[in-house]
Amino acid sequence: MHVITVLRAAWRIPKSRAVFIFAVVDSKYPIRRGLGMKFGVLIFPGSNCDHDAYWTLQQIAKQPVTFLWHESHDLENCDAIIVPGGFSYGDYLRTGAIAKFSPVMESVKKFANGGGLVLGICNGFQILCESGLLPGALMRNASLKYICKPVQVRVESTDTMFTNACREGEVLTIPIGHMEGNYFCDDATLEELQRDKRVVFRYSTADGQITPQANPNGSLDNIAGICGPGRNVLGMMPHPERSAEPELGCTDGYKVFQSLVGAMAAK
């Protein structure tokens, strides 16, 4: 169910009022209209954040967007692909382990290897790692508990299509919701990620300190998001679509979508 429908149903907000609320977001976070890029949001059995991502792109970022079914190879000429959160194929075997064999991921891999933009969120990050588009793996949280709460992440690199609207060192508040968000890779891979500034987000305190206490899941080096060597593929465990409009309590996550749209419009 879309957020605007929830607003009207739960609080009996008139349609005109609900539209006004989203107009406020538009005025605060403008997008260059008339220069729309087409987004594709993947749907797997078990996806549950696909409609959230779709809503954010269509209603907040004002961009053309379509759903892409997991059994299809056709990416429908999309300019950017979102691999959303959820529990693809029930997380059987391992998170993302089955999804990587889906027909749509074959096309996504070709798309990414050709320079196409791909954003993996939460389960999407796990799928990108399983598919080999990003290094490392996401293990069970150190606490062995599911964690769902807002966290702070520090922007480590703005040299990506996903963070160019941010400032390096800026702290964003974005929610997480996962059981397997504990990022791990070998020493050589970590050294490469650090050397090439491919660690894009790290869990931090509200004032930007990288500490063990700020790490919600035990991730190596407090890693919350990384990009591929071409910087066109990003995986992140926090959910930017869950903090993209005032009704959700925070709008920091919108900067990820703002960055994507703005970078494509500038091309």
Please, could you describe this protein's structure?
This protein has 267 residues and is α/β, with parallel strands linked by helices. The chain has one domain: Class I glutamine amidotransferase (GATase) domain (Rossmann fold). The protein is 28% helix and 21% strand. The chain has seven helices and eleven strands. The strands form two sheets. A nine-stranded mixed beta sheet has the order 2-1-3-4-11-10-9-6-7, sandwiched between helices. A two-stranded antiparallel ribbon has the order 5-8. Strand 3 (80-83), helix 4 and strand 4 (117-121) form a beta-alpha-beta unit. The longest helix has 14 residues, at 15-28. The chain is globular, with a radius of gyration of 17 Å.
